[in-house]
Amino acid sequence: MSEHLFYLIQQLLNGLTLGSSYALIAIGYTMVYGIIGMINFAHGEIYMIGTYIAFVVLSALMMAGFDNVPLLFIGAFAISMLVTSVYGWTIERVAYRPLRGGNRLIPLISAIGMSIFLQNLVRTAQGSRDIALPVLVHGGWVIGPDQGFHITLSYMQVVIFAVTFLAMTILSLYISRSRMGQACRACSEDMGMAALLGIDTNKVVAFTFVVGAALASIAGVLLGTYYGVVNPYVGFIAGIKAFTAAVLGGIGSIPGAVLGGLLLGITEALTAGYLSPEYSDVVSFLLLCLVLLFLPTGILGRPEVEKV
């Protein structure tokens, strides 16, 4: 195998790592939009808060003498998902439910205001500087000759792939087979008719915010421990990227959010590897423009049918 092929495979692995996290965050956008037709622009800040909670939990456990890596991860995931789920439920209650049914622009402005509020809340509490997270998983596999370029697959990348795949599989099975999943799909088709059939639509909407927040916190723990740094502004960038991934794959479609996240991550990695990291955002948004130009609903999105 040539060095060029090794380099290409390395960039693809890097892109899949980044894209997996984008996909986890994008599912939150696509679930909320699929049911109530609105965008939760405070979702990126939920991801950021999940990373900060992971930092606090990991620091506390390690100071208490715990050094078992699986136990540290379980503790970080559990507490982070619990706290961010409360945030997700609160955002729905405060910023969306009182405004639902009116002009769509009003909840959008409310969500942007909630995003700014959460960002400044964390900045006031934790400061605006970068905070280093402990690196829990070290080492990896090296493939290729001793001399020249070789492929590196870290153990942490494998953890990211495995946790992302497991979380998405559990969510897909739950949505397809549980009563709440059926209620979510019914509300996605027609909220008014679902309410007439006895489905508690407020409960379903709150559930989507909670699940989306929990998935975003998983991405926060994974990326935080992978890159080892967090600040109050990482949520804005990650949220915009995840929203782009959701639109790219077809907003409202969970498989589309996954596909869009992986495509966006691979595009950014290849651009950074072959052109320059400064052009990664430009090429990613250019890809989005091209897809929407020829597929206005995204790759896996369904055309919106006007009900009469």
Automatic annotation (TrEMBL):
Subcellular location(s) of the protein: Cell inner membrane
Transmembrane segments: 20-39, 46-66, 72-91, 103-122, 155-175, 204-227, 282-301
UniProt topology in membrane: Multi-pass membrane protein
InterPro entries, per the entry: ABC_transp_permease, BCAA_transport_permease
Pfam name, any one: BPD_transp_2
Primary site of residence: membrane
CDD domains with a match to the protein in the record: TM_PBP1_LivH_like
Keywords: Amino-acid transport, Cell inner membrane, Cell membrane, Membrane, Transmembrane, Transmembrane helix, Transport
Recorded family membership: Belongs to the binding-protein-dependent transport system permease family. LivHM subfamily.
NCBIfam families given in the database record: PRK10740.1 (NF008011)
Protein name stated in the entry: High-affinity branched-chain amino acid ABC transporter permease LivH
